[in-house]
Design a protein that fits this description.
about 750 residues, mainly beta, 18-stranded parallel beta sheet, 15-stranded parallel beta sheet, 6 helices, about 5% helix, rod-shaped
Length: about 750
């Protein structure tokens, strides 16, 4: 720009000592009247121009905003977390706690704006929707109360409150029956019984075809069941297998014990079962194994059963292979399952005050259901399930390695201080879909990744509940293809992100809104005080491709790899489309099309030439200061007319202007100076309210674009709602977003 811009009101301005064109002669006055009459007939369908109409699609809106973060403040017409980069109406720097006042050119049709804070990496660290329906607006970002629950630090090797038992000593797993032990038959004979005895030490092998019945003895305080060794294949489908409470049962290498339904449900409490490598306990299809009343079973061999229930202080310690064709459950009263080997089951159900710890590989081909406030579920290995339902809060639901959920991970907890799903540093969850409902917590350690390959649905119902990263150090990553909301009105927060946490989405994150307003109220532009989601200090929310951050994959962690981090937003522009009145029946408004960018953080805007549709000499001015050269010096008119054939947008950058505080770009007096065929030099600028326009001011869309009409195509033919808006500016204020594609220049 040559010289300093002198900014004034958008009137039909006078430039270079020349009067406005229609004031120069009677002939010109008659031409103006003919133009106005034709415009009323052709464009407005015989209606009058709305007396309020300034032919400007924007409203200058003064915003006073208080920030809760330090960074770059941007104002958008669309929530920027919707998956595509959008153009900002305003850009400026702001500090935590600072209040700034500035003016933007808000589209008349838009009553809700979005304020976003970006950090030094251009990542979103705060986002707020606010009501901008008035010309003066005051808004403030939500601030987390001082009582916010704190994320833990690194959270490495998270230990549960419950102390899980150790495996039995290696001396308990035998290759054969010890020397000197009598057979079961011999022990019966020694006790003068034909099929059983009270207590003692014996072994059973396939040569014994009768029942096993060790009924134990009673010393006045407790029973004693003795010791039983099992070798070879022993099937008890049509005969009784009963050992009294407190019996030690050893299955030596290669031993097989097959139990009927009545036997498998009648194992007595206080017994210890030791399965050596190669040993096996099995039941036929449909037959369940029940561990009750303090029974301990230590498996270094194989267990293959229908269902398996661990109840009432019983312990199942699996160090090799456990196959459950139905449900595996820990029912109540300190029942425990520990897996150091491989477990396969249709369902895992933890209830009461039961406890499960996986240190090896567990595959659940149906549901994992954790539904008690006193459960312990700890995964230190590889855990795979079709569905993971965590529906009651507990202190000790902990993933220290990798949890894979084939279909849905759902967390919906009670409103207690014990709510939470904890993840170790470098741990990982991979689930197809995720749903957070109720007052739920997820606590993630440094370098951990929670990956949702499809949809994460947020429906949390209380402040301070949500996803927490560590307090300091490396960030954790919550990553989803898309993050949506299933929230109904008036239910408080939908999601909260706290601590050193990256919330990464591949496609989109649900729009910011307010849960204390219903859908119709929000559609009417009403803004509440309870935002759908809150981004706490240290957290960011950003599209994956824009995040330059990597967590390496490992045995426990799926890893995370963002993009190059090169987020480039389109520039927002205000378009000034002119008629030079070479004729009085041409209303294409493409004789000159100029656009001015939204100001940068230094309040500087560029002025660019987009179209040349007129043959007269034309120069562009901001008030009385010329910007650039005569427009035809930037391109030939004729075969390459820029109103019909796009050679490039913009055709040229004409210069820059400084936009003062309190002024929007649409308020700038951008005008053109036209040299008419008779040599007169006139200025064409914005009309007074209610006048026939020679300049139309139009905002760009979310990508900063507007498509002008083709040559000799009236603007009302290119945009069918333009005339109705001209006659009543309250109708169709977004007319410029609905072009007839064959009648505009698409670029």
């Amino acid at each position: 720009m040559n010289g300093a811009a002198l900014l004034g009101t958008a009137l039909l301005a006078v430039s270079c000592s020349h009067d406005a064109w229609f004031q120069t002669s009677d002939a010109a006055q008659r031409a103006a009247e003919e133009y106005s009459s034709n415009f009323k007939t052709v464009v407005l369908g015989g209606q009058d121009v709305d007396s309020r109409q300034t032919w400007n699609t924007t409203v200058s809106t003064q915003i006073t905003l208080t920030s809760a973060k330090t960074g770059t403040l941007k104002i958008y017409t669309t929530d920027p977390a919707q998956g595509t980069t959008v153009a900002a109406l305003y850009t400026g720097n702001i500090n935590k706690g600072e209040t700034k006042t500035f003016t933007v050119a808000r589209p008349q049709a838009v009553t809700t704006l979005y304020a976003t804070i970006l950090d030094a990496n251009n990542y979103m660290i705060d986002n707020m929707a606010f009501d901008a329906s008035e010309s003066t607006v005051t808004a403030a970002f939500y601030t987390t109360p001082a009582s916010a629950r704190q994320a833990k630090a690194a959270r490495r090797a998270i230990q549960p409150i419950f102390n899980f038992p150790e495996d039995a000593d290696a001396s308990k797993f035998l290759s054969d029956v010890p020397a000197g032990v009598k057979s079961y038959a011999q022990e019966c004979q020694a006790n003068h019984q034909t099929s059983g005895y009270g207590s003692g030490v014996s072994y059973v092998d396939p040569s014994w075809t009768g029942e096993v019945n060790i009924w134990g003895t009673w010393d006045g305080s407790k029973s004693s069941g003795g010791t039983l060794y099992i070798k070879g294949q022993n099937w008890f489908l049509d005969r009784k297998f009963y050992v009294a409470a407190n019996t030690d049962v050893y299955l030596v290498e290669g031993a097989v014990l097959v139990l009927s339904e009545s036997n498998a449900k009648d194992l007595q409490g206080g017994c210890n079962y030791y399965l050596a490598p190669g040993a096996k306990i099995a039941t036929p299809d449909g037959v369940d194994l029940v561990l009750n009343n303090g029974l301990h079973m230590y498996n270094h061999g194989t267990i293959d059963v229908g269902k398996l229930s661990v109840n009432n202080t019983s312990v199942l310690y699996n160090s090799n292979e456990l196959q459950v064709r139905g449900e595996l459950s820990t029912e109540n009263n300190q029942s425990v399952i520990v897996n150091d080997g491989t477990i396969t089951a249709t369902r895992l159900h933890t209830a009461g005050s039961s406890h499960v710890q996986n240190n090896g590989t567990m595959t659940i081909n149906g549901n994992t259901d954790i539904d008690s406030n006193n459960n312990t579920w700890v995964n230190n290995g590889q855990y795979t399930t079709n569905y993971f339902y965590y529906t009651a809060g507990s202190n000790d639901v902990i993933n220290n390695c990798k949890l894979t959920v084939r279909e849905l991970f759902k967390i919906n907890l009670g409103d207690t201080d014990k709510n939470g799903f904890q993840m170790d540093s470098d741990g990982g969850v991979v689930t197809k879909n995720f749903e957070a409902a109720g007052p739920s917590y997820i606590f993630m350690g440094a370098g951990s990744v929670f990956e949702v390959t499809e949809t994460a649905t947020m429906n949390i119902t209380k402040d301070l509940y949500g996803v927490y990263g560590p307090e300091t150090g490396d960030k954790a990553v919550f990553h989803a293809k898309k993050i949506v909301s299933a929230a109904s009105p008036n239910q408080c927060f939908v999601a909260n992100y706290f601590g050193q946490l990256i919330v990464a989405y591949d496609e989109s994150h649900f729009a910011q809104g307010y849960s204390d307003k219903d859908a119709q109220q929000q559609a009417n532009g009403e803004i509440g005080v309870q935002p759908y989601y809150h981004v706490g200090e240290g957290a960011i929310v950003e599209k994956t491709e824009f995040i330059d951050y990597t967590i390496d994959a490992s045995t426990c962690c799926p890893g995370f790899k963002g993009g190059a981090g090169n987020k480039v937003e389109p520039t927002q522009y205000i378009y000034f489309a002119f008629e030079d009145l070479g004729t009085s029946d041409d209303f294409d408004f493409n004789d000159v099309v100029v656009r001015v960018s939204a100001p940068d953080a230094n309040r500087v805007s560029t002025v660019e030439l987009c179209a040349i549709g007129g043959t007269l000499q034309q120069k562009v001015f901001c008030d009385n200061v010329q910007i650039g050269e005569e427009v035809h010096t930037y391109g030939e008119f004729g075969a390459n007319t820029y109103s019909n054939k796009i050679v490039g947008v913009p055709i040229a950058v004409l210069g820059t202007v400084n936009v003062p505080n309190g002024v929007s770009v649409a308020d700038l007096n951008i005008n053109i100076q036209v040299t008419r065929k008779d040599g007169q030099v006139v200025t064409v600028a914005g009309p007074q309210p209610g006048e026939t326009p020679f300049r139309v001011t139009v905002t760009g869309d979310d990508q900063g674009k507007w498509y002008w009409a083709k040559e000799r195509t009236n603007l009302s033919d290119a945009y069918s709602q333009f005339g109705a808006w001209g006659a009543n500016m309250d109708e169709n204020p977004d007319w410029y977003t609905n072009p007839i594609n064959s009648r505009v220049i698409k670029w």
